[in-house]
Amino acid sequence: MGTEVSNDTVISYDLTPWQKEVYISDARFKVVVAGRRCGKTRLSAIELITKATQCPAFDARVMYVAPTQGMAYDLMWSLVMHLAEPLIAKAHINDGDITLKNGIVIQIRGADKPDRLRGKKLFFAILDEMKDIKTGTWESSIRPSLADMEGGALFIGTPAPEAEEFRKYYDFGQEDDDKYDPEWKSWHFTTADNPYIKKSEIQAAKNSMGAAEFFREFEASWDTTGANVLKLEWFKKAPAPQGEYSTYISIDPAGYENVNKSKHLDFFAIAVVRVYDNGHWWVQKIDYGRWDVRESAVRVLMNIRSHKPMAIGIEKGSLMRALMPYLEDLMRKNQVFAHIHTIPTASTSKINRITYALQGLMEHGRITFNPDENWDELKREMIGFPSERVHNDLIDALASIAHLVTVTYGRPNDAEEWQPLDEMAGI
Q1: Least C-beta-crowded within 10 Å: which of 33, 221, 372, 409?
Q2: Does the pTM exceed 0.90?
Q3: Superfamily of domain 232-403
Q4: Helices 40-54/17-24 angle, 10° precision
């Protein structure tokens, strides 16, 4: 719950759990990437009102900035007028100014009129729908105005592939990012984090929307930045085909970190694929997660024991060398024996390796996926590939199957029966 006090007037606001987390944070610069209908606009209004009641200088301002002046009025004017009604002394919609009884002015502005953003001493600023705000607005107009009072700011919006400036500020607030700045803190929330939106409504939207649009709008995913190398229309679910097959397991190891440490670390991925005699791949499952080396070895062993693969492959390198002593020890103790093939990758780029292995097969419908598994993470990787900002661990594990498989595409009866050229010599 947020509480504002001004001239002995007390107002309380109900906040959702994610809104409260952001609201009580003492970070100077806050960045919120959130899905549609998550509650971004209401949080922005409450932050504006709170900062205006806390502002210690009568000649300072609190400012809300949207991409355009019209959008700023549509999103914020009526909401602030409603939520702050007992605190308001006067309001001029033509100027975009709301003056509270303590004398502090809340300014509602659009980034399409940059001259109206300059020259003001600011205590706090909110940049809403940040992906659509003109590049440079923060650095040239807003940030210098906060210097007098060492003021703070809130950046908020849904992501977009082209919103590089918004992504840069988000990275500033991630402790595991090499751009991390301790004055910044950033959060990622989805529409499902709003307790007032029914899960059934979110599922209905997922069923009716394209995957890329759903991930971006409802899950606020940055992972929609790819070049359409692996098209989503090529992703097909189907029951396991009939016929003879061999099972293969390929492993893409990661950095053996605890799952709770960071959502930005790579996944350890284990692909289990049936390859049929006609060359068709049926992807039974891809087991993935962020595990320490011991749990990773246990997961590999469980998959070997359950699926009894013809061949197992693991990407060659230091991560393989870290895993193998644990895996070999578990195999001896559990009497599970299998030959592990090393897959060399140093001489090829990961992008080319994945593209060459999967693009043609998927385009021609020669890879299908188990309908009983959840493939959302793999779809995200397909959408984002080959962007460096997006995980590609699952598709890399799947692509590695190509290094293990040997398929004869000809029919056995096609070969002519051998006839000796010289019956006496037998040749």
Answers
A1: 409
A2: no
A3: Ribonuclease H-like superfamily/Ribonuclease H (3.30.420.10)
A4: 30
